[in-house]
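Priority: low. Protein: Methyltransferase. Input follows.
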Amino acid sequence: MRNASPTPARNPEEDDFLSSVREGLRQRPKSIAPKYFYDAHGSHLFDLICTTPEYYPTRTETGILDRHGAEMAAMLGASCVLIELGSGSAIKTPLILRHLSDNAVYVPVDICEPHLRQSTQRLQAMFPALSMQPLRADYHRLPAYAIKHHARQRQVVYFPGSTIGNCTPQEAVQLLKSIADLVGPGGGLLIGVDAKKPIEMLNAAYNDAAGHTAAFNLNLLTRMQNELGAQLDATQFAHHAYYNETHGRIEMHLVSRCRQTIRLGTESFPFAEGETIHTENSYKYTAHEFRQLARMAGWHLKSTWHDEDGLFNVHYLSLSSAEPLKLTR
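Result:
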């Protein structure tokens, strides 16, 4: 049955933006976790990024889900509990939900409550028979108790958008292990992973001509000013994103245009000209590389779907090694 008024459950472990920023600015080199991009304005800017001609991942993954969503849902189980991590606007989610049974349960998880509420309301209107139970949480610290009452149904995680690429390989293994603990024996994982491709295409995707990615990156400084009272001049920082071929990742940085200082409470954080705050990584994986990474966390790759140009992969993984591997184009 549908919930009459889906309201995001609250995560008892609230993110500590202030302490995270302080810790990040004390580091050498300085860094702040990319999850703090996603206030309401940052989430809106990311939606704009996804519409740019340079940013191929969203439209490519959408095409894969549109063509193969029925097959994916059959592997997940039509009556499953579908837990979407980092659901955001959940634009692609209907391509899976439309193939689920009315007794399935959808649990969107996102750190931005306004975005979570709006997307859940939109999806509930599209699929009125589905039970939807939004959870405002940092999926890196997802409380297992939040879905224990669905234990009789198969639990699967849906993790689109190649968000796993924001983790280092070591962090990715730990997150995949946490997902395995969450879904338990018999559970599954449907995950989008961006593939390696020409450097020019990767660099363009994170430096769109409209400037949405730059605004998205710089919005982190605005959040620090508005929410933490940080004293800084955001105009004296510039967006910089490039593909680091050695590490197989896009890196995003905020580059100081001059010698300056960010003041936060009683602390001061000096910057030299050209010094950066490392704000995001986006690792790219071949299908083989990701299969090896997943196996380190106890997952077995069962099926892979990809576009004709090999830009993006959607993988289905299981904790059981009994099912045969299937590759679909």
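Residues 1-15 have pLDDT under 50 and may be disordered. The chain has two domains: 53-197+284-328, 213-283.
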